[in-house]
Amino acid sequence: MIAPLRRAALVLAVAATALLTLATPAAAHGADAPDGTDYRATISGVDPDHPGLTARMVEAGARLELTNDTGAEVTVFGYSGEPYLRIGPGGVYENTHSPATYLNRTLAGETRLPAEANPAAAPDWRRIDDGPTARWHDQRTLWREEAPPAAVAADPDREHRVRDWAVPLRAGDTAGAVRGTLDWVPPPDPYPWWVAATLGFLLIGAAGLAPGGTAAGVRALRGVGALLAVGGAATVALTVARALDTGAPGVGGTLAELVTGQVWTLLTGLGALAAGGYALARRPAADFVLALAGACLTLFAGATNLAALSRAIPPAAGPATLVRVLVVLGLATGAGAVAAGLLRLRTAARAARPTPHPTPTP
To answer: pTM for the complete prediction?
Structure first.
């Protein structure tokens, strides 16, 4: 059996290895999806008002989504008035000659334009999806400058209307647009959230001071296990909220997003639930399991979502305050379980040391 101190070292090694291994895919997934923003993009309406033609903002307002269930084709126009997207019964097509086809692939809009990008050229349509929905980063709905608007810089503590925007389209033979607004929303004060996370970490970690094998130690182990399970459940809820915010269609689309774009956070939450149950059952090596699951929860559920504590619009469906509560629960219970597990392993290692016998006097 692995000695308690070696288990503690293994907790840190496994967590660090997992972080290094998974950091690149996670960063790549988030490259065109923000961790949070202080700019709120809102749809005002779609003109013409056709039943089945709907629009919404997804990914914390980073993408505009247009769904066409009208049975007729809808054409979306790019930045020079050229045809950009065609959405209809045959699926979604993009015009390879439209600069918007390339600029809208990333949030920053810095894609290098190929030679064939010419808004004056006749459209060259390429099918990119067989469904009725298109999603894209549209620069008209975003604030892409490094500095905030002048009104925001002068008074950043209240909301400001940045601009009204319109994305032109044609539905059948009728010209129209998706219309909306862009507002600045003051970010929250992250200090109270950090205080809550720190207090939770200290209180849960202190449970590791209770001696193992005693009644108090058993209660402490079960208490930490139960709280870690709460953190795991909060992380699963946060993961579902993030999947919903991507605009994934229906239950099937949400499940697909959970097992692709949100898989590591989802597995972390489920692992914390399992580890909490393992500790509640007082299974062997429960201290090690708590510490390992807590480290993963801290890294992949807490640290990766810290921006939600300081941004007005987090990338998750639901009230922003609830999203922050879920992040704090994952962070506090994860870090607390690490501290409690390592303290209990250290205590067990000390108890396992042989007591030296005094040398007899001749």
So the answer is: 0.82
